[in-house]
Amino acid sequence: MPVTIKDVARRAGVSPSTVSRVIAGSGVISRATRERVAAVLKEMRYHPNAVARSLIRREAGIVGLSISRPASDAFANAFFTEVIRGIGDEVGAAGLDLLLSMSATPQEEQEHCLRLLRSRRIDGVIVSTARVADDLLKTLDQEGFPAVVVGRPPAGTRMSWVNNDNVAAGRMATEHLVSLGHRHIGLISGAEELSFCRDRYRGYAMALSAAGLEPEPVAHVVHFTRQDGFDAARRLLRDRPRVSAVVAVDDTLATGALQAARALGRRVPEDLSLVGFNDDPFAASLDPPLTTVRIQVYDMGRQAARILLRLVAGTAKLLRYRSAAELVVRATTCPPGGPR
Amino acid sequence: MPVTIKDVARRAGVSPSTVSRVIAGSGVISRATRERVAAVLKEMRYHPNAVARSLIRREAGIVGLSISRPASDAFANAFFTEVIRGIGDEVGAAGLDLLLSMSATPQEEQEHCLRLLRSRRIDGVIVSTARVADDLLKTLDQEGFPAVVVGRPPAGTRMSWVNNDNVAAGRMATEHLVSLGHRHIGLISGAEELSFCRDRYRGYAMALSAAGLEPEPVAHVVHFTRQDGFDAARRLLRDRPRVSAVVAVDDTLATGALQAARALGRRVPEDLSLVGFNDDPFAASLDPPLTTVRIQVYDMGRQAARILLRLVAGTAKLLRYRSAAELVVRATTCPPGGPR
DNA sequence: CTGAAAGCGCTTACAG
DNA sequence: CTGAAAGCGCTTACAG
User: Fold this and answer.
1) Is B84 part of the contact surface with chain A (CB cutoff 8 Å)?
2) Do A99 and B100 touch (CB under 8 A)?
3) Beta bridge partners of A322
4) How far apart are CA A78 and CA B17, in angstroms?
5) Res B69 pLDDT > 70
6) Which residues of chain B have a CB within 8 Å of the CB of A75?
7) Bridge partners of residue A131, in order along the sequence
8) Which nucleotide is nearest to B55 if distance is taken from CA to C1'?
9) Of A265, B80, B100, B239, whose CB is crowded by the most CB atoms within 10 A?
């Protein structure tokens, strides 16, 4: 049996209220009692019961992070691990704890998150995957739970979010290729219901249309894995032989595309230029080093947590943060046919 | 204000006890009241308060997972992400939740875990990194908290753990190289305080000594990153030019070593054989595909969780699970000088 | 400055 | 079968 405040009170010859006040550092307690109680606290190795406190304070002191992809590809992707790191640092600094909810499907995610929130097990939630039509986000909005999305929530929801401008980012990546002289530029992307995929596609299409070019049919992947990137690139390069440059919405996909190009006997960048997204840790050490759009993923995690904490504390109702994106030109892009 | 059991009781015209019994599915309640209460429950959208329940049941319903490396390299490593996935699946299936505790140092880890446990915020903890002299594990053992280590706990602690036989695994990797005819075999490893590094070293040394060979000076890394693997391999290959084969205790390190070999103009496997550990998802798609010792990481996560749940439930006191390891020969190993 | 009382939202013997 | 009471471990007005 763990020692309770009552045990301490009895031993110190005071009331539980007094012990509680000493623990809380209430200035009102006389020095003598404070010291005596403090000594007993220490001697008995008292540790406050977080659950009892939560019940009174009506806050769990825990925030949730929901990851709804099959964890196999979520965790394998540096994007998520960096986001988690940012969230963890910020949440920890605030003295709160982080509960991890993993779900394989949007339905499961919805159930998990709502159960956690409704049962007051968590005070708020960060949702790491935004879908174009997201029931969870809508419900969160309606029921007024503190929540922030990493990504773009469905239109019409009054949600807090943290995002980078994926339209602009997609445009930036594509414009780079256009400016190098490419006329046939392909795109490897994920499901259309994923907001960031849709947005990057729009940026891609805008850049092309501004240059008077036509988009190629998108090569879709199901999972954000190297293998899926490989397969998608192979299909794309076979079906559209004139494609001289490819944008992949994720560095892991780009890595797969790089291998596919090799497998088809195409040199990168001479025969095929390639741009990724995220600037994952490995991007710079690929062979050749990958040109990519750097997203400030760790920072997005921190900002998401910072916002959530403010929502939970009630010091804000709605907060949004747009993070920066930067094109990092390395060695997988050059004019069609080779440098110069 | 969320609706409580009292609100429901009032509306349904029964006592809170009765409502509670209906929720718990107590068979003793009359059909009529059961149905009436159930209707009100639904109508009022009642959701039980997990915190209040935890207080009574004296269990949080949450288990912790502690990750103590700098998250930057922990998460980037497929080992951890697979472990998390296994744990998450098992914990979720049992209807419990998972709290993630990340710490940058062993000291921080100790503080975090003990706070979580002592404050009864979590019912037990899975510690994902075992150190040779681990204060945390010793304290966990002494204070009798349900805990399981992924890896080998310090000698003398009566802890539950899940591990693969790293001595045998290190030996298996090295014997493979010996049997190919290598006489000068290097090792890239992490800090000696990490149990799995120490164990794999022992296996490595045993295999060599059985063949009448001498170990090379170990090339140590600080972080389990590609970069550190690169640097360590470069040092090793420069200092010990006769080394014709290298064992890296981790696939990510092996990837760095592969790049270092290339940078030094050594072909793999003709001029340098390379064996990794873990069979990370990318291992098979490296160029050339990596020979590695496959560890059943997902399974280790599941087993760790399964054991922890039994400790928490009190249906066991001490449980240990040794998982299998398997040598997967791919294309980074061959006899010195090239095939045949 | 300190204590007794009430209460956070539940559950569960104990009566009836 | 159902309710009143006690209690999980704390906090906090309210008295004094």
Assistant:
1) yes
2) yes
3) A163
4) 50
5) no
6) 75, 78, 80-82, 84-85
7) A194
8) D8
9) B80
Give the CA diameter of chain B: 87
Residue B233's region, left for phi above 0, alpha for psi from -120 to 50, else beta, is alpha
Q: A230 — contact with chain B (CB < 8 Å)?
A: yes
Query: Which residue is closest to D10 in terms of CA–C1' distance?
Result: A52
Residues 6 or more apart from A253 whose CB is under 8 A from it?
A188, A221, A224, A225, A226, A228, A229, A232, A276
Q: Read off the pLDDT of residues A208-224 as tens digits, 9 standing for 90 and up.
A: 999 999 999 999 999 88
**A residues 11..70 contacting B (CB < 8 A):** 47-52, 54-55, 60-62, 65
Say which nucleotide is closest to residue B57, CA to C1' distance.
D8
Please give the Cα distance from B2 to A117 (Å, whole number): 11
CA distance A267 to chain B (A): 15
User: What does the pLDDT look like over A228-266, one tens digit per residue?
Assistant: 999 999 999 999 999 999 999 999 999 999 999 999 999
Tell which strand D nucleotides have any atom below 7 Å from a protein Cβ.
1-5, 7-13
**Residue numbers in B near A76 (CB within 8 A):** 78, 81, 281
- Report the SS3 class of residue B3: coil
Give the whole-angstrom CA distance, residue A156 versus residue B82.
Answer: 37
Q: Are B339 and B122 in contact (CB under 8 A)?
A: no
Contact in structure between A48 and A23 (CB atoms under 8 Å) = yes
CA B57 to each of CA A118, B52, B254, B275: distance values in angstroms, whole numbers, following the listed order: 19, 9, 48, 50
- Does residue B336 carry a pLDDT above 70? yes
d(CA A173, CA A275): 7
Q: What burial class does residue A177 get, using C-beta atoms within 10 Å of its C-beta: 0-12 exposed, 13-18 middle, 19+ buried? A: buried
Q: What is the tens place of the pLDDT at every residue in B164-195?
A: 999 999 999 999 999 999 999 999 999 988 88
B4 vs A contacts (CB less than 8 Å): none
Pairing of strands B291-295, B325-328: antiparallel
Measuring from the CA of residue B28 to each C1', which nucleotide is nearest?
A: D1
pLDDT in tens, A134-163: 889 989 999 999 999 999 888 888 999 999
Cβ–Cβ gap A51/B55 under 8 Å: yes
Chain A residues touching B88 at Cβ < 8 A: 71, 100, 102
Q: At a CB cut-off of 8 Å and minimum separation 6, what does A150 contact?
A: A83, A126, A127, A128, A129, A130, A161, A162, A163, A300, A301, A304
Residue nearest to nucleotide C8 (CA to C1'): A56
The answer to whether A261 and A282 are in contact (CB under 8 A) is no
Does nucleic acid strand C have an atom less than 7 angstroms from the CB of A187?
Answer: no
Contact predicate B296/B164, CB 8 Å: yes
The answer to whether the C-beta of B50 is closer than 7 A to strand C is no
**What does the DSSP 8-state code read for residue A194?**
B
